[in-house]
Specification:
Blueprint (H helix, E strand, L loop, with lengths): L6 E6 L4 H17 L3 E8 H7 L8 E6 L13 H11 L1 H9 L5 E7 L4 H9 L2 E6 L3 H8 L1 H6 L11 H4 L1 E2 L8 E2 L9 H14 L4 E4 L7 H10 L4 E3 L21 H7 L6 E5 L8 H14 L2 E5 L4 H8 L3 E4 L4 H5 L4 E6 L3 H10 L3 E3 L6 H11 L3 E3 L12 H12 L4 H21 L4 H21 L1
Parallel strand pairs: 1-2, 1-4, 2-3, 4-5, 5-8, 8-9, 10-11, 10-13, 11-12, 13-14, 14-15
Antiparallel strand pairs: 6-7
Helix pairs in contact: 12-13, 12-17
């Protein structure tokens, strides 16, 4: 493409897969919507090694900055140190990279958790769009965090018993939520940095949500009423899959798809608890025991422990170290998803129309589980209390799994009906003229218009 006349967008994701994936998927949507866009996707050298071989459209190019932060392989060991490095050490090398980029940068799309990008945009006289890769309700909880302080609901160190059952019903756009369902299990320093990121995002040129409007319309409307900047809902930022995209039986490395092909429709529970923070070994064993006792077919992604968990879980299921999650969820034999409630996983499950069992581990996953079970009514709670000390026993897991996967049960049928409704709503949002498609076009128009204004 002719780069001299291109509208140049620099994408800056937070260095973590749950942030990089939606940013890349957004960039692919942008690239396909307007071929005048040139997108430079900036990651650390380590992350360039992870994603450098991934196919991208011709108008997306990858660039890197030095590894000035702890490795992705150890970031879970000291999360607060990792965040501190992201907030304090990446700005200078990113700005040095900007100095050498051609053509002139028109817009920076930065993850909200890269708040210093707003200051960089000011110095370079470049518009910065803030991309929020979690639920809009999570953004609203943090944006209105002072309300928790003023109502005596923060800090609280023990959420067990009656205290955790207290209702918070004063956050705009959010239905009543228990104290125990608010974001948890992060230290004071991490929380402070998150609140700082929210504050900086309100000074950006616009805010982007990776949700579609119909998913949390009350939250989006309440934020729009308060914000002076535009809010665009452009989700789900996932790689859309059609039946034609499903792997063929002779495709390499898809043994699990061959196994899925041999299972009855809607009979398989897909299990994945994320790739960042994992549950304890004893809890993994209880999940395996529960799955075996349930008698339900399952496909489980468990990195590093597959052989042992396969032995404990029995021969009704298959344990693998990796799979293409979205394609698995879209397979006709999959009828449920046991999930840690990460936002990307939820969006893929909504897109596929699959009901969920919630097993949140920390932070935004906790209110996400409440969204699924109480607001959308597309799932059941499997883990009710947060923390590794609260072990969910195999017998309880087996009972809840059977409730979800009983295709003839009234409860299960209703969950599936609700999941299908949300899937249809998602399909309408991303089709031409839908809420997300029109918002994406409006955002692109704003970028292009900004480039024209810079040129005049």
């Amino acid at each position: 493409m002719e780069t001299t006349s291109a509208v140049h967008v620099v994408a800056l994701p937070y260095p973590g897969r749950r942030h990089i994936n939606p940013m890349m998927n957004l960039c692919k949507l942008l690239a396909s919507s307007d071929d005048s866009l040139l997108i430079t996707f900036v990651v650390t050298e380590e992350w360039l090694g992870f994603i450098g071989s991934t196919p991208t459209p011709p108008n997306i190019r990858l660039r890197s900055i030095p590894n000035v932060i702890p490795s992705e392989l150890v970031r879970g060991a000291d999360f607060s140190r990792f965040i501190e490095a992201v907030y304090t050490k990446m700005e200078a090398p990113f700005e040095r990279l900007l100095e050498g980029l051609e053509p002139k940068v028109s817009c920076i799309v930065a993850d909200t958790y890269m708040p210093w990008a707003v200051a960089v945009g000011r110095r370079w006289n470049v518009a910065v769009a803030s991309l929020w890769t979690m639920a809009p309700s999570m953004f609203s909880i943090l944006y209105h965090f002072e309300l928790l302080n003023s109502n005596g609901h923060f800090p609280i160190f023990d959420l067990s018993g009656e205290r955790g059952e207290e209702l918070v019903n004063y956050i705009p756009g959010i239905s009543s939520i228990r104290l125990a369902d608010l974001p948890g299990l992060v230290g004071e320093a991490v929380l402070g940095r998150a609140l700082e990121a929210i504050s900086f995002s309100t000074e950006s040129h616009c805010l982007l949500f990776t949700a579609f409007y119909e998913l949390e319309n009350h939250v989006i409307d309440s934020l729009r009423a308060k914000f002076r900047i535009p809010i665009y809902h452009v989700g789900p930022t996932i790689p859309y899959v059609t039946p034609q995209d499903m792997p063929s039986k002779d495709h390499p490395n898809v043994d699990h798809f061959g196994w899925l092909d041999g299972q009855p429709k809607g009979s398989v529970l897909y299990v994945s608890l994320g790739s960042f923070l994992s549950v304890s070994g004893s809890q993994m064993d209880e999940i395996a025991i529960g799955l075996k006792a349930s008698g339900v077919r399952f496909l489980w992604v468990a990195r590093g422990e597959a052989a042992r968990l396969q032995e404990v879980g029995g021969d009704m299921g298959l344990v693998v170290t990796w799979c293409d999650q979205l394609r698995v969820l879209c397979h006709s034999s999959v009828g449920g998803f046991l999930t840690h409630c990460g936002w990307n996983s939820i969006m893929e499950s909504v897109y596929a129309g699959v009901p969920m069992l919630t097993f949140p581990i920390f932070w935004d996953q906790i209110p996400n589980a409440k969204l699924i079970v109480e607001d959308w009514k597309t799932g059941l709670r499997l883990k009710k209390e947060i923390g590794n000390k609260n072990l969910v026993q195999g017998q309880e897991i087996a009972q809840t799994v059977k409730r979800l996967m009983d295709l003839d049960g009234d409860e299960s049928r209703e969950l599936r009906r609700r999941a299908r409704e949300m899937k249809e709503s998602c399909e309408r949002a991303i089709e031409k003229g839908g809420s997300s498609e029109t918002n994406l076009r409006a955002f692109v128009k704003e970028i292009v218009q900004g480039q024209k204004n810079q040129s005049n």
